[in-house]
Amino acid sequence: MNWYTEQWSTECKFSIKYDEKLYSEKTPFQQIDFYKGKEFGTFFTLDGLMMVNEKDEFIYHDMIVHPAFATNPNIKKVLIIGGGDGGTAREVLRYSSVEEVIMAEIDERVFRLCQQYLPITAETVEQDSRMTLLFDDGLNFVKNASDASFDLILVDSTDPISVGEGLFTTAFYEECYRVLNKDGILINQHESPYFAEYAQNMKKAHKKIKDIFPITHVYQYHMPTYPSGHWLFGFASKSYDPIKDIDINKWESFGLKTKYYNTSLHIGAFSLPTYVKEGLDAD
Ligand code: SAM
Fold first, then answer.
1. Known binder of ligand: residue 159?
2. Is the CB of 87 under 6 A from ligand 1?
3. Is 85 a known ligand-binding residue?
4. What number is the average pLDDT over the span 134-154?
5. Percent of the chain, pLDDT > 90?
C-alpha cells in the first residue's frame, strides 16, 4: 500500500493513500512529485509539501482571487507571483474586464508538468491572449516593474523556505506597494494559525504588511490538505476595504459560477476566531 505522508508539525503527520506515483523531478529550484490517488485525484508536492490536488484546488483558487474582485470589480491589470499550477490565472481570466495578466513563476517545470498532469488548473491559461508567462523570481520581477503599474498582485507562493523565502520579506512587500496603483490590492499567503511554526509565519507576514499598507485584513478558508486545514490570506490595500467596499450587486452581475466563494462567505471570511486575532496582534 502506498501512502504520501507530510509532516504537519513535529508531533503530527498527514497521509494520503495513492495508487500511482506519476512523475518525479529535481529542478534547480525544488523537488517536484506527482501522485494519483482515489480520494484527492492527481496531486503534486514541492519539496514534500502538498501544493495542489484535483479535489480541493477550487477552494484555494476561489479564495485567492474572488474576494479582491468583489471588493474592486474594476481590476484590469493583474500580477501573479508564483502560481505555477495555473489555477490562480485560470480564475482571474474568467473576468472579461481583465485586460492583462502577468505571471512570474520561478520554476517553468512546475507549469509545464501541470500542463501535462494537472490540466484542470493549467490547461487553458497559456492560450489566453491577455496572459504573459514569465519564468523569473517574483522578487526580481517586482524590483524591475514600473511604479503604479498593477491593480492587483496575487502572491501564490510556497512557504517561506527555500525559493519562497524572499516573498515573505519587507523588501518584497515594499516593492509590491510601489508597483500597485493608488487603488491597488495585494493578496498574499498568510499561512495557518494552528500549528506553532505556521502561526509564527502568519504573525511575521502580517506585521510586515501592516507597517507598509494603510488597510490590512486577514481572511480564512478551509483547505483540507494543508496543515490543520485552516488557512489564511492577507488582504492589503491602498484604498479599498474588503468589508466596507464589497460590491455585491456588481460581483453577482458577473454571473460567475463558483463552488466555494460567494458574497455572504466573503464577509464571514474576514471574521476571525479570537485565538487567530490574538495571534496576529501578539508581539
Ligand atoms: N497553492 C499552493 C500552496 O500554497 O501550497 C501554492 C502553489 S504554487 C505551485 C507555488 C509556486 O510558487 C511554485 O510553483 C513555486 O515554484 C513558486 N515560487 C516559489 N518561490 C517563488 C519566487 N521567489 N518567485 C516566483 N515563484 C516562486
1. yes
2. no
3. yes
4. 97
5. 92
Query: What is the structure's pLDDT at 226?
Result: 97
Are 96 and 65 within 8 A, CB to CB?
Answer: no
Residue 198 alpha carbon to ligand 1 centre in Å: 16
Residue nearest to atom 8 of ligand 1 (CA): 83
Cα distance between residue 167 and residue 172, in whole Å? 6
61 CA closest ligand 1 atom index: 1
Burial class (CB in 10 A: 0-12, 13-18, 19+), 92: buried
Per-residue pLDDT tens digits for 78-128: 999 999 999 999 999 999 999 999 999 999 999 999 999 999 999 999 999
pLDDT at 68: 98
Ligand 1 within 6 A of CB of 106: yes
Average pLDDT over residues 224-245: 97
Q: Is 159 in the pocket of ligand 1 (CB under 6 A)?
A: no
Integer Cα distance of 215 and 239 in angstroms? 7
Grid cell listed for 208 = 510586515
Structural domains of the chain, ranges and CATH numbers in brackets = 2-53 (2.30.140.10), 57-281 (3.40.50.150)
pLDDT at 228 over 90: yes
Q: Is residue 30 a known part of a binding site? A: yes
Which ligand 1 atom lies nearest to the CA of residue 107? 16
